[in-house]
Design brief:
Elements (H helix, E strand, L loop, with lengths): L5 H12 L3 H7 L1 E2 L3 E3 L6 H9 L5 H8 L3 E3 L2 H5 L5 E2 L4 H14 L7 E4 L12 H4 L5 H16 L5 E2 L23 H16 L10 E7 L18 H8 L1 H8 L4 E4 L3 E2 L2 E2 L4 H11 L5 E3 L4 H8 L5 H11 L4 E2 L3 H11 L5 H17 L10 H4 L7 H14 L1 E5 L12 E4 L25 H8 L3 E4 L10 H10 L2 E7 L20 H10 L4 E6 L7 H6 L2 E4 L7 H9 L62 E10 L3 E10 L5 E11 L10 E10 L4 E9 L5 E2 L5 E2 L3 E8 L5 E8 L2
Parallel strand pairs: 1-12, 4-5, 5-6, 6-7, 7-8, 8-11, 14-15, 14-16, 16-17, 17-18
Antiparallel strand pairs: 2-3, 9-10, 13-18, 19-20, 20-23, 21-22, 21-26, 24-25, 26-27
């Protein structure tokens, strides 16, 4: 984990003593490669013009054909750049050579990239992988990504994304571990161990970057970059814990989020950066802004101009400015005018140099040709891990009359444009994959030897081909309809006000069902969808998410019964979009939701989700019995019998929740505290035991103080957050 030796710390301080003010500020400047050429407006504006339709794509392509890439080589040579974003080993070595051999002090560059769910070997999006409830898997996939990216010189991952997100309208829900604080904390800790844990060689680890700190997932109305407002207790109990867990696990870096929190942008927020992160938690690493976020403080209206924004960010504890060049332009004057103490600059530069020292960049600045070529062809072990992660992330939502698994020898009509789209399997924020490595669902059917015919019919966009639909309905004994969202419909800047199936896909399902053949829906999507109609009418629904390069093989394995589904939902699925935000661990109200009129409910949608957090079926059934809760001093020991009552083997995720019945502030109706896996043969029963530390039964009050209060607690154990056995216990601390 992130920790320097005494000798390394001494080297950093000696180097710092030889640096000029300009060179220190240079370390705080992160550049992005710039696109330059024969055009009259900034590249960013060109992108905006393309996006909003002012510039036709043909004209954009013509302009870009004359453009060149500027990697700021001269600034690197002058010691005015501390970090960059590059994806190519040859270019990395070239830039690193300039930094190490041609700059005055020879300080190597940090090279960062968004490696959210895999580098070359893309594995499932985070909201899918979190549903495996398997910390060892989280760690293994992160370690794989670290090794692959380091082979290209990328030594800094802008990951993991550990935002708690409870509103499925927000596009970036796809990038994080879901709605639950405890699961997100376990996910965060495991990802840090995977990215940073193997320090046997600099080839095996990177600096992780926790994002987005903090409460970005609480954006109002589920609209990206929007404001977030909450009481201190909610901040401390829900949104901060995953970050704290990762800091305690040794995370090297943190990225501040775009949003304002209670009126103060996180980019310039002294409370979250200086007081909590660097003060209370004693975080020793560096903090980087999100892209262009310092400049955007002027848009927020908290800074008068870029100079003011830079002053506020530096003083708040922002060590690196990503992409705006405000620090390199403004901080020297700010120091000379007394607006920013020199000690702030020294602290930031020392934190940055320390991360570089810990990464081994001073001793091993370059990537060898052998290492750069190591993952040109994806190793079988990496493909196998991606496939395993995909298989285990799939969630069975409905299986009426045991329709699934399918007999692949039967005639199957495979329907839906998404089924054949290799480029749609990777999901949002995957940057370094190759289409040639991607396995579509149709490819998976081919590889499994299924007896099928493919009918595109329609997708999330475009029209419905009636002739193809009629042929599909007539040909197959069973119909598999692949429906959902394109990759571009989730992720950053992809919030949606309507999260039902987009386009004509519901009409497709309606017409397929009208033919009388059994229909199974396979969902490809990056967010929870509002599926009330589908849950009533479609006999079988398999939530497949965006599973990465091995998606088709993973889906075929589960669909045809080679592997039973074991995934659980890391986020609740609403019945209707208007229920958002919806989550299981909500506070109780004075009039809890019920059938009576004067209760906390909707007239047209009820108050409960369609599918709750932790939900997921198998091809077998599990029964729970014999719940026992014992007070063992500092620990509650919780045991339950879990039995496989079906005819197939399966793996159940046993979930333990608690409720603090009476407290000094209103507490959630349930909170996840632990989980365990139980692999059971048909008829087999196991006694599953989990432990809850009594200290974990406390909470933060609105003064930010952690308190433990004696009283009655309810312990719940079950296969999801809704269907549980329960037992009361009096707890004293």
């Amino acid at each position: 984990m992130y920790r320097l030796t005494d000798a390394q710390r001494a080297r950093v301080r000696e180097l710092l003593s030889r640096m000029t003010l300009e060179e220190k500020i240079g370390q705080m400047n992160q550049e992005s490669m710039s696109i330059v050429g024969g055009f009259d407006v900034p590249f960013e504006e060109l992108i905006e013009m393309l996006t909003d339709g002012r510039l036709p794509k043909e004209e954009f392509d013509k302009i870009m054909s004359t453009a060149k890439t500027d990697y700021h080589e001269d600034e690197v040579r002058e010691g005015l750049v501390g970090s960059l974003m590059v994806q190519d080993a040859e270019k990395y070595n070239e830039l690193q050579h300039i930094a190490v051999e041609e700059s005055r002090l020879g300080i190597p560059l940090l090279i960062g990239l968004d490696v959210i769910h895999g580098f070359r070997t893309v594995y499932p999006i985070a909201i899918a992988e979190a549903g495996t409830f398997d910390e060892k898997l989280f760690q293994r996939t992160a370690a794989m990504a670290a090794k692959e990216s380091r082979s290209q010189g990328i030594n800094w991952h802008f990951a993991p994304m550990v935002d708690v997100a409870r509103d499925a309208r927000w596009g970036r829900v796809s990038e994080g571990p879901g709605e639950d604080t405890r699961l997100a904390s376990r996910f965060a800790r495991a990802k840090i161990q995977g990215l940073q844990g193997d320090m046997s060689s600099p080839e095996n680890y990177v600096a992780a970057c926790l994002k987005h700190y903090v409460a970005y997932g609480a954006c109002e109305s589920g609209r990206d970059y929007n404001t977030a407002s909450m009481a201190p207790a909610q901040l401390y109990n829900v949104y901060l814990p995953p970050f704290r867990a990762a800091v305690e696990a040794g995370a090297a870096t943190v990225m501040a989020s775009f949003n304002d929190l209670n009126g103060v942008p996180c980019t310039v927020n002294r409370l979250t950066l200086r007081q909590i992160l660097k003060g209370e938690w004693k975080f020793p690493g560096l903090v980087v802004s999100d892209a262009n976020a310092i400049r955007e403080c002027v848009n927020h209206g908290i800074a008068a101009d870029q100079y003011d924004a830079g002053v506020q960010a530096a003083n708040a504890g922002m060590d690196i400015d990503m992409g705006t060049r405000i620090y390199i332009k403004e901080l020297k004057r700010a120091v000379e005018e007394g607006k920013v103490p020199l000690s702030v600059i020294d602290e930031a530069a020392e934190r940055i140099l320390s991360v570089k020292m810990w990464l081994g960049l001073f001793e091993h600045p370059y990537v060898s040709p052998e290492l750069a070529a190591r993952y040109e062809t994806l190793p079988e072990a990496h493909l196998a891990l991606a496939r395993e992660a995909g298989e285990r992330s799939i969630v069975l939502l409905k299986n009426e009359n045991g329709l699934l698994p399918l007999d692949k020898s039967k005639k199957i009509s495979l329907v839906g444009k998404l089924a054949a789209e290799r480029t749609e399997v990777v999901g949002a924020w995957a940057l370094s994959w190759r289409e040639s490595d991607c396995v579509s669902i149709q490819d998976g059917f081919d590889n499994a030897g299924a007896n099928y015919r493919y009918f595109p019919c329609c997708g999330p966009e475009g029209e419905l081909d009636q002739a193809q639909l009629e042929e599909a309905a007539a040909w197959g004994d069973v119909i598999v309809a692949v429906v959902g969202e394109t990759t571009a419909m989730s992720g950053e800047a992809s919030s949606k006000a309507d999260i039902t199936l987009p386009g004509k896909q519901r009409e497709l399902l309606e017409k397929l069902l009208a033919g009388g053949k059994p229909v199974a829906a396979l969902l490809m999507n990056g967010r929870p969808l509002a599926l009330e109609w589908e849950s009533v009418h479609v006999p079988a629904i398999l939530e497949c998410w965006h599973l990465g390069v091995q998606m088709g093989n993973a889906v075929a394995s589960v669909l045809f019964g080679d592997r039973a589904p074991e995934g659980k939902l890391a986020s609740s699925f609403p019945r209707m979009t208007g229920q958002c935000p919806i989550y299981y661990s909500h506070p109780n109200t004075g009039r809890p939701g019920g059938k009576g009129k004067f209760t906390s409910r909707y007239l047209d949608a009820g108050w409960e989700p369609l599918y709750p957090f932790g939900y997921g079926l198998s091809y077998t059934e599990f029964a729970y019995d014999g719940l026992e809760v014992k007070d063992a001093g500092d620990t509650l020991m919780v045991s339950v019998d879990v039995r496989n009552t079906g005819s197939r083997p399966g793996v159940e995720t046993v979930q333990l929740y608690t409720r603090d019945v009476t407290a000094s502030i209103v507490r959630p109706v349930k909170e996840l505290k632990d989980f365990a896996k139980a692999a059971l043969a048909p008829g087999e029963q196991k006694r599953v035991t989990m432990a809850v530390q009594k200290n974990d039964l406390g909470f933060f009050n609105d003064a930010g103080q952690y308190v433990l209060e004696d009283g009655k607690f309810i312990v719940y154990v079950g296969g999801n957050s809704r269907d549980c056995l329960s037992q009361e216990i009096e707890v004293t601390f």
